[in-house]
Specification:
The protein is mainly alpha-helical and 357 residues long. It folds into 3 domains: 50 residues; 93 residues; 162 residues, hpI Integrase, Chain A (Orthogonal Bundle), CATH 1.10.443.10. It contains 14 helices and 8 strands. The strands form 3 sheets. A 3-stranded antiparallel sheet has the order 1-2-3, with helices on one face. A 3-stranded antiparallel sheet has the order 6-7-8, with no helix packed on it. A two-stranded antiparallel sheet has the order 4-5. α2 packs antiparallel against α3, α7 runs antiparallel to α9 and α7 packs across α11. 21% of the residues are buried.
Length: 357
């Protein structure tokens, strides 16, 4: 490799890159030509060290994060949105510190990252103080830890710089659910038939709103009285366990049989008034308005129907393992939030021991 002056008073560099490709470039200034030549030399030297396992590869964060995100794009829309937001925050942190390569990120940077995401912030306009929620912080940390773990597996770094970072302690809140009295008041209110069916669907199946919105008529088995939550174009269930078959409760079954004879959509079962795919924001607004009209003073939100479904099952002694399957939880630990609702009158359960001796 060399730098030579041409007859046009420019400086020519002919070099071979790390892959053996010939590169020929001309520069107006000799200093630029020398800098380019030095850059290629350094890259080749680094590659020799990597190949001899004396050093890990210098992989740009931009490339590594793109490779990390690509497989995640097939997940549910909410999950993808969370991943994108977390990665965006992480990139901003890297830019502030001027970190370009994965190998540059140290445990000290990880500690600084934790301090940054747990920092309280004040909004000048309203003088409000925002305190990051432990669950949100833990979600962010989980994504970044997963990223660095993948980089270790790929051989880009020897050890994850996040290994010493611990999750924040989360105080698990008991799930909120509608009481039987509130449910009665809610459904006594006037509302469009399409929305009434959607609320019944949430209550009698325990489905998440995005699952309900993506139920097609082909997912309903009227003979076996089952609704199937399955992957389809434009919809990915939250987890593998989220794909499931849910028995249809009799009140909902009767409503679906009526609607089947006079469909307002040939595709979707639970729709808007216009017969289009139902939207979470729209249904939430309707839910809040009906709750106010019904005089319900507790918080009104869509996921509360799912909690109500699970609560009623547990109170009526349905085993947690079955509740887990019906809800599509990936772990029984998720279902254990309802364990405190198991009836206390268990004398009959232990009475089998009365005649032991």
């Amino acid at each position: 490799m060399s730098v030579r002056k041409t007859k046009h008073n420019t400086y020519e560099v002919i070099v071979y890159d790390v892959n053996g490709n010939r590169i020929e470039k001309r520069f107006k200034l000799k200093s630029d030509a020398v800098a380019f030549e030095t850059k290629i030399k350094n890259e080749k030297r680094e590659m020799k060290l990597v190949n001899s396992k004396l050093k890990t590869a210098d992989v740009p964060f931009k490339q590594a994060l793109e490779e990390f995100m690509n497989p995640k794009l097939t997940l549910g829309s909410k999950t993808v949105s969370k991943y994108k937001n977390f990665i965006k925050q992480f990139i901003l942190f890297l830019e502030v510190l001027g970190l370009k390569y994965v190998s540059e990120f140290t445990p000290d940077h990880a500690t600084l990252l934790l301090q940054e995401v747990t920092k309280q912030r004040t909004i000048p306009e309203s003088n409000r103080t925002l305190v990051p929620k432990p669950k949100t912080v833990n979600g962010f940390l989980a994504v970044i830890k997963s990223f660095f773990n993948e980089e270790v597996v790929k051989g880009h770094i020897v050890k994850s710089p996040m290994i010493h970072i611990k999750n924040l302690k989360v105080q698990k809140a008991k799930p909120e659910f509608y009481t039987e009295a509130e449910i009665k008041l809610f459904f006594e209110q006037e509302m469009d038939d399409a929305y009434r069916l959607a609320f019944q669907g949430l209550l009698y199946t325990g489905m998440r709103i995005d699952e309900l919105a993506n139920i097609h008529w082909s997912d309903v088995d009227f003979k076996k009285k089952l609704i199937k939550v399955v992957r389809k174009p434009g919809f990915n269930p939250k987890t593998v366990n989220s794909e499931r078959a849910i028995p249809i409760a009799e009140p909902l079954y009767k409503e679906l049989c009526k609607l089947q004879k006079k469909k307002i959509s040939q595709t979707y079962v639970f729709t808007s008034v216009e017969g289009k795919q139902i939207r979470e924001r729209t249904l939430l607004g309707v839910c809040k308005r009906i709750a106010i009209a019904a005089g319900i003073t507790s918080r009104a939100f869509l996921h509360k129907f799912r909690h109500t479904f699970a609560t009623l099952l547990v109170i009526n002694r349905v085993p947690l393992e079955r509740v887990q399957k019906l809800l599509g939880h990936s772990s029984i630990n998720e279902t254990l939030i309802y364990a405190h609702l198991i009836p206390d009158d268990m004398h009959d359960d232990v009475s089998v021991l009365d005649k032991l001796f």
